[in-house]
Design brief:
Elements (H helix, E strand, L loop, with lengths): L46 E5 L7 E5 L6 E4 L19 E5 L8 E6 L12 E5 L12 E3 L19 E7 L2 E8 L12 E6 L2 E5 L20 E3 L4 E4 L3 H4 L3 E8 L4 E7 L19 E7 L8 E8 L12 E7 L5 E7 L19 E6 L11 E7 L11 E6 L9 E3 L18 E2 L3 E8 L2 E8 H6 L6 E6 L6 E2 L1
Antiparallel strand pairs: 1-2, 1-28, 2-3, 4-5, 5-6, 6-7, 8-9, 9-10, 10-11, 12-13, 13-14, 14-15, 16-17, 17-18, 18-19, 20-21, 21-22, 22-23, 24-25, 25-26, 26-27
Length: about 475
């Protein structure tokens, strides 16, 4: 398997850390509640575009939707701790949440490459408070593994902040921070995850009671994380010679961890395929709260990529599973997505790595998705015959079989310009738009394709939002 580092970006809500990590000050008395990723409290979703690979250490470009004004945030911004340097990866992971309940969301930024106390790639997470008029960078707080209340200690190559997920479980806000490079007992990249809820900060790893397998070098536990109101999923793509697995937890706190449910892989009963070295199952994750037809209980819809899956003699073609996790942890496979399936556009080719980016989207903005409202967007990293060397993007409806109305996105179609679409990957999605990285005469941009037009086959021109000077866009909130 040609390993592709995963980037999981999950928009969420809030967490508070009673007295350990204080919530952001309430600057936003006039904020309007009701919109996710609303950094200026005007009731409209704003956009944050991550470009972590620049020589400045990375940056996030925020566009405020009501005014159209933009703000570039990096470690050179007044009030943001640190000093940006090449390799910091500021913005490699993003999340948003309203930590003080005032209606303005805070922006959470992961920088897994940050040098902390002379230890390279130890990693840092920054929390930037929302406020009327925009994010209050002067009040930015930075956290690492030496911060008060965080178990463990800063070490080189921990990659703290490599993945993020945030949300609401019951009345409690939570934040999940992946540190996949963590060395526990045996060696590099065993990996662990920090989970914050209420006044508690606990760690998850494979040496905790009830978690399957053991922490081993190269497991990369926490390379990917995903959360819903009922479950937390942690990718362990390096497990068993990179066959891969996903560890599932409830949000119920134990003395020093979360309550484990199960670990799922391609040898789990009911999951298609078989666990093979290099499959990388769990290297990319996405999750939504979900209800099956005629079922009143909400569970989790989990999309799991195995980008290194071989299809027959085609090496690293890639495969993605959709799984339903019920409240008790029962696992039901809903479908598998591959380019060899009936009526699915494209053909499996060597190094396609289908699922390099995997995004679930609920187009209804509801408390939970259903088959009628959920979409699965997948990108291939390369070797696609239609666009050699650039890959492809495909959108699947969950209301039917994988080949029922899947949409293939290409330059010059679906509202995209013939030139200017970057590397044919996915930068993010919201209930209204699918975001793709690209460039224009004004520099790097994000193209936004409206779901309504995309699914109907109309060709309305894509909207664009600025993303800075150079093309290294990896994610959008």
């Amino acid at each position: 398997m040609n390993r592709v580092p995963a980037l999981i970006i999950t928009a969420g809500l809030t967490f508070t850390i009673g007295g350990v990590v204080p919530p952001a000050p309430a600057y936003a008395a006039a904020c309007v509640t009701g919109a996710d990723n609303d950094f200026d409290g005007d009731g409209v979703r704003d956009r944050a575009v991550a470009a972590p690979n620049g020589s400045d250490g990375g940056r996030v470009v925020v566009t405020y939707s009501s005014t159209g004004t933009t703000k570039t945030i990096d470690q050179q911004t007044d009030g943001v701790p640190g000093a940006g340097a090449d390799g910091d990866l500021f913005g490699f992971a993003l999340a948003s949440y309203d930590s003080d309940g005032d209606g303005c969301d805070e922006l959470v930024v992961g920088g897994p490459g940050e040098n902390v106390g002379g230890k390279p790639a130890a990693g840092t997470v920054w929390i930037i408070p929302g406020a009327p008029g925009g994010l209050n960078t002067a009040a930015t707080a930075a956290y690492d593994q030496d911060s008060a209340g965080f178990p463990g200690a800063v070490e080189a190559a921990d990659l703290f902040g490599y993945s993020l997920a945030a949300g609401l479980t019951g009345s409690q806000r939570y934040l999940v921070i992946g540190s996949p490079g963590e060395k526990l007992d045996d060696g590099y990249a065993e990996g662990q995850v920090y989970y914050l809820q209420g006044g508690s900060i606990v760690t998850l790893h494979q040496d905790k009671p009830g978690v399957a397998d053991d922490s081993e070098p190269g497991d990369w536990f926490g390379e990917t994380v995903a959360g819903t109101p009922t479950h937390v999923a942690v990718g362990v793509a390096g497990e068993n010679d990179e066959a891969g697995a996903v560890a599932l937890f409830t949000h119920t706190l134990t003395a020093d961890s979360l309550t484990p449910l199960s670990t799922v892989g391609q040898d789990t009963a009911g999951v298609s395929g078989g666990a093979e070295a290099g499959d990388g199952f769990g290297g990319v994750l996405s999750a939504l709260p979900y209800r099956l037809p005629n079922v009143i209980a909400t569970g989790t819809l989990l999309a799991v990529a195995a980008t290194g899956e071989d299809l027959g003699t085609v090496v690293d073609a890639g495969l993605v599973h959709t799984l339903f996790i019920d409240a008790a942890g029962g696992i039901t496979q809903l479908a598998e997505y591959k380019q060899s399936a009936p009526d699915v556009d494209g053909n499996p080719e060597t190094d396609d790595l289908l699922g390099t980016v995997t995004r679930l989207t609920d187009t209804a903005r509801g408390a939970y998705a259903t088959p009628a409202t959920a979409l699965l967007t997948l990108s291939s990293a390369g070797a696609e015959g239609t666009h050699p060397g650039y890959g492809a993007v495909q959108v699947f409806r969950l209301s039917g079989a994988p080949g029922d109305g899947d949409v293939w996105i290409a330059p010059g179609h679906a509202g995209l310009p013939a030139e200017g679409w970057g590397d044919h990957t996915v930068a993010g999605s919201t209930p209204e738009y699918l975001y793709l990285p690209g460039w224009s005469d004004d520099g790097a941009v994000v193209f936004g394709l409206k779901w309504t037009g995309l699914l109907a086959g109309t060709e309305a021109p894509a909207r664009t939002w600025p993303a800075g000077d150079d093309l290294n866009i990896t994610g959008v909130l």
